[in-house]
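Bench log. Compound arrived from synthesis this morning; before running ITC I wanted a structural hypothesis for how JHZ sits in the protein. Inputs:
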Amino acid sequence: MTKCLICENSFKSFVDFGDMPIANAFAKKEDPIDKYTFRMKVGFCENCYMVQLLEQPEREKMFHENYAFFSSTSNYMKEHFKLLANSISELQGLSNNSFVLEIGCNDGILLENFVNNGVPCLGIEPSENVAIVAKNKGIDVISDFFDKSIAENIINTHKKADAIISANVMCHIPYIHSILDGVKVILKEDGVFIFEDPYLGEIIDKTSFDQIYDEHVFLFSALSVRNLASMHELELINVEHQITHGGSMRYTLAHKGVKKISNNVSELIMYETKIGLDKSKSYESFAESVDKIKTDLIMLLKKLKNDNKKVVAYGATSKSTTVINYFGITPELVECIYDTTPIKQNTLSPGANIPVLPYDEFRASQPDYVLLFAWNHATEIMKKEKKYMSDGRHWLTYIPQVKIH
Ligand code: JHZ
Ligand code: SAH
């Protein structure tokens, strides 16, 4: 039994992925291979409804000056964050007298929009290499891990925030109580705290098990977020579905009792209760569904190998580390992974040592089948590669089930 990170209740795991490497530990060929692994199990706390990892590597092992994920590699995500900035500006009536704080600003994909619109803002970003890209865009960034003590420092030098924003960061932070204490300190009386993360309801529905890796310590639902907020005198006032990252939810929190609660919240809670996200037994078949995908994909990859087909992969995602290592995908089955991110290129994938190559070499490699690890960007990528792939080549995807396109 393990203690829940939110309410300290004891809980057990419902799925065990075995020993996993750091999802973004792409190894340069000249570097020694990092043999570090942690046991990746996921469980559900019946008391507060939080789905969470039982164990997580220490934060400095994941977020540092060689962090491999740069947010701005997707044009679709750039557009998504531009729209988010506009909608928050409208919601809060932001101007050059306002103040916006972002937790985990990465390369500045969101905050650059506020800078361009003359809205004062600040990013907090511990991974120095991505923070430098944001700083070079003219964004004010503190290179540190946000928590309550950082918040207390910020309040000495900045005014209170009209909006605090955090995309794909809250679900990464096991010390989330300290984050919410910090939010409480910095958020103006009528301010909003808006965050979005992959949505538990869709992860269960689509069996998108690859959203589970070291960085994602929590898989949120409205049920768990509402409860967590209430522990900090905050209130969940809105929820909005997003199609990003394979299905996400945007949660809006405000100080308790200040803002009207949208009907979306009770409707989503009703839906979550109906599909059983509040009950242990709903999670029992998840591992079986994952193993069905595993069997189907491995069988297909072995058959393609026997038929002498050339199979490569597209997108060295964090998610792919779970797929590759849990399924036992080797360089014999998938020759290499092409990716546009310079820091990932000419490296070996974490755990399985599949070569990661520059995207520029993808088309010349003439594959028969392309395994799409960046399936969450399928619309953007398939559009970009449409002409090339129409020449008798096939995409392979595996969420929600194995499919040849
Ligand atoms: P992508 C990361 O997850 C990690 P990952 C993190 N934990 C998280 O929650 C989300 O992001 C937000 C490449 N690519 O977005 C770029 C191409 O090569 O699915 C990336 O390496 N060509 C913070 O890593 C990868 O694919 C393209 O055209 O699972 C995509 O990674 C495009 C669009 C992407 O996130
Ligand atoms: N918001 C971006 C980046 C997500 S990547 C997007 O949606 O694309 C997650 C980021 O959170 C990483 O850049 C990591 O360095 C950062 N991070 C991790 N822990 C953090 C903390 N305690 N405070 C602030 N940022 C953190």
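What the model suggests: Residues 63, 67, 69, 71, 103-104, 106, 109, 124-127, 130, 145-146, 167-169, 172-173 surround S-adenosyl-L-homocysteine (ligand 2) (CB under 6 Å). The longest helix spans residues 286-306.
ITC booked for Thursday regardless.
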